[in-house]
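Subject: design request, 230 residues
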């Protein structure tokens, strides 16, 4: 029995061997085992992109001009343009009877007025002008007669304005700013130019005793200070 199995095994092996030999050399052709066809492998890349619309720049700068206008302006804190009234009250004269004749009716003493504003100035080159309507305080009562060698109807006065301002030609000036503008007793006006300034302003009015006696009546004059941007 064992011999039979061995023989069968040998026969089977031999048969397989023959079949194998035939499968590799039948008429010189190769025979592949049945199955699906071998796949066809491939790889492809395609692109479609437009270039820059203009030359690329690694940096960019933009500038804006920001502009606006400041109006020229001058200020003087002190009320409206309507003349304010500075009342000296009674201008005292020598009314004593027991006095020398050359002293009778003379103005007793000098008088003065001080006008101060905390805010004055202009934001551009400007002109400051001080003007008196007349050279002095005038008694306009024309109905009275008098001896003009002994009496007067005019009291001359002077005006000095003090403030801080640069010259009109010096940009950025910050020192030596003290300014005075004076109108003497014998003149009616004075003017000067300055650069942009703002400060307090003091106006001193000095009314000295005239050399002649005063005719009774009301003495007055209009004092004008004008700041004008140029």
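Subject: RE: design request

Done. Sequence follows.
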């Amino acid at each position: 029995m064992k011999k039979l199995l061995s023989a069968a095994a040998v026969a089977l092996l031999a048969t397989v061997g023959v079949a194998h030999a035939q499968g590799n050399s039948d008429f010189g052709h190769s025979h592949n085992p049945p199955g699906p066809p071998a796949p066809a492998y491939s790889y492809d890349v395609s692109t479609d992109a437009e270039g820059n619309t203009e030359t690329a720049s690694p940096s960019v700068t933009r500038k804006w001009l920001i502009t606006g206008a400041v109006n020229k302006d001058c200020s003087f804190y002190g009320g409206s343009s309507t003349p304010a009234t500075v009342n000296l009250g009674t201008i005292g004269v020598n009314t004593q009877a027991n006095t020398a004749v050359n002293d009778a009716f003379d103005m007793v003493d000098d008088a003065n007025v001080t006008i101060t504003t905390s805010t004055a100035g202009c934001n551009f080159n400007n002109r400051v002008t001080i003007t008196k309507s007349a050279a002095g305080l005038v008694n306009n009562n024309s109905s009275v007669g008098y001896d003009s060698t002994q009496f007067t109807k005019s009291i001359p006065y002077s005006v000095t304005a003090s403030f801080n301002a640069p010259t009109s030609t010096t940009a950025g000036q910050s020192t030596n700013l003290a300014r005075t503008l004076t109108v003497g007793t014998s003149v009616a006006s004075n003017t000067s130019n300055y650069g942009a300034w703002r400060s307090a302003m003091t106006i001193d009015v000095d009314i000295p005793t005239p050399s002649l006696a005063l005719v009774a009546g009301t003495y007055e004059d209009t004092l004008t200070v004008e700041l004008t941007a140029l």
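Residues 1-28 have pLDDT under 50 and may be disordered.
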